[in-house]
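So, could you explain the following?
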Amino acid sequence: MKYFGTDGIRRKADFFTEEFLKRVCAAVAAIKSDAKVVIARDPRPSGVIIEKILSEGLAAAGIKVITVGMTATPVLAFCVRKYNADLGVMVSASHNPPEYNGIKFFDSEGRKITEELEEKIEEIIDGGYKPRRKKGGSVTPADGEGDYVRHFSALLKPRISPKRVLLDTANGATSFVAPRLFEALGCVADVIFNDVGGEKINDGCGATAPEAFIEAAKKGKYDAGFCFDGDGDRVVAYCGGRVLDGDHMVYITAKYFLESGELSEKTIVGTIMSNRGVEDAVLRSGLKFVRTSVGDKYVAYEMKRLQAELGGEASGHVIIARYQNTGDGVLAGAVLLACDSAKGVNAYDDITDYPQTSGDILTTHEKVAEYKARQKEFAPMLEIIQRESGGRLVVRPSGTEPKIRIMAEAPTQAAAYLAVAKARLCILGGLGNV
């Protein structure tokens, strides 16, 4: 697609001109006439004007807009359902640097919209359609974070014993809502990287750079800690004296719900990046394991198709369908505290991870597109590299950045490193100067 990637429309902030945003409003108005739409943003400076143009443009087209201000993506997804809205619009570039921004769309169930709907939006954006001004539109603020905290604290507080937790909010959208929720759950919450000026979002902190968080969590002798990305749909956890990725969190949560008799549909959804050790552990527990393409929206689609209750990605997206239909790092952290309060996370986690390593080829959007177009040419050689490694090799173009991502999983770490090195040489040799 021209504008949409793995996770909404995402570009450098100057891409989102007033003219482009008005065309986005036209597309929404054409598809969701006389609708109710919830809008939120992360703290990037560019988000303020993007939110304003979208809100005013949609209201002028007769749409009732509810704004919940600067908050996390999962809060936006929750509010779409809470306020019986038809669509959610999140202005965020998630884990990308401050100079980026983006727009994510959510359906009435708080799930990312389908690719078919994304294609319709693109067609209208480029089709020159201009909405007529209609009466009945409005812009109304709401306390989305307050509603989110009240709802989930009421559900989870009885399950959680008081804890001392550390929160890394990535100088991003969870800076207010995360401590509010954990304190409402009876925890003492210390927060680091909570500058909401927007210029430091994801800068050496958060789920994509958790090193400082992990060191602080260990030194501070916290019961647990949670490290979110810029918009809060991803999390890295520190609990039970260990660092836990999204796959481990999904598995621990599954075992917790299974033992409490609350897991009715016994299928767990992961991705092609999920460690083989996770799959082995899921199967040992009498559950099914299904893989999807990378991207939490694909996990969510498959969960809906299978009526699965749990799914996620190693990168930190955790979807607990009984509560949310999208990745929610803050909620996933709270549920992990419930698991830990029950009998300790390590009692649930019997995963033995296979050695994995990864590497990115940083290039241009044009070279990424070229690789996508020529993937069949590279496939035979990459298949040979995978077979020689004795494990799995995943090579994929990033859907959010100008990168080609490589992951290898093998019986030994050395074999995984070698497979990544060979794959890099294969791709670089085929694409030429990247």
In short: The first strand starts at residue 4 and ends at 5. The CA atoms of residues 86 and 108 lie 5 Å apart.
